[in-house]
Every structure is written in structure tokens, then in C-alpha cells.
Amino acid sequence: MTPALMSIAVLLSSTFSIGTLAAPILRCLISQGGTDQILDFKPVTDPYFVSSINIRDNFRFKAVVIGDAQSVSYVKLYSYYHSRRQPVLLHQVRYLSPAVEITEKFDALTGTNTVYSPNLEREFQYGCALIEGNP
Question: What is the pTM (predicted TM-score) of this model?
């Protein structure tokens, strides 16, 4: 193979590998009190540095996506209620080795979940999908 052909082959292989590698993203649609939020969560290696998201001062939502740019080992989702003293865990779920979805339906991984507060008659809904993100 000539040096020119080798250069072209290296260039093409790097172009295709860059174009096809897109880190997975967990995309969630969260609805509470008539307000919708779309949140994206990227893979991390340490679950202890992931913060929860405030949902209209009524709930908190935390999504831990453990993995890297190629794959996700697991996803853990936590839903909390805001009590006067501290957040109270209401719901926790784990998905092991989830596959990246082709569809962009928000609830492709989790389905639609409804979480109710223990008092005040409040609720929120969420649905998440693991999708291929932009490189």
C-alpha cells in the first residue's frame, strides 16, 4: 500500500469511527403541577457525585447513569419527596445493562411512572429513555 493510500485509509477509518461513536444519554420527561421538563443525564463513573434535581420545590429526582461513552452498566433512578426536615425517598429503581433505544419516546426504558407525595396530594410523572447522544 502506498503512503497516500495509507493516509486516506487512516483518515476514513477515523472519520467513520468518530461519526458512529456517540455517548449514550438518559433523556427524561418530568411532569409536575402542569409543568414539563426534559432533562439529559450523561454517564458517570462515580455515583456519589451525582446531585438530585429540584422538581418545583415539591419533589427531587436523581438519575445515576454508570458507564462511559460506549456503554452503560446500569441506571438507577431515585424519587424523593420534600419533607420539612429532609428529602424522603419514595421510589427507587435499577436497570442493569440497558440498551440504547432507537426510538425517541421518552418512556422507552422506564415506562411512565407516577410518584405520589405522602401528604398534600401532590404527584409527579416521569419517563426516561436511553438514547444515542450527539458526539
Answer: 0.80
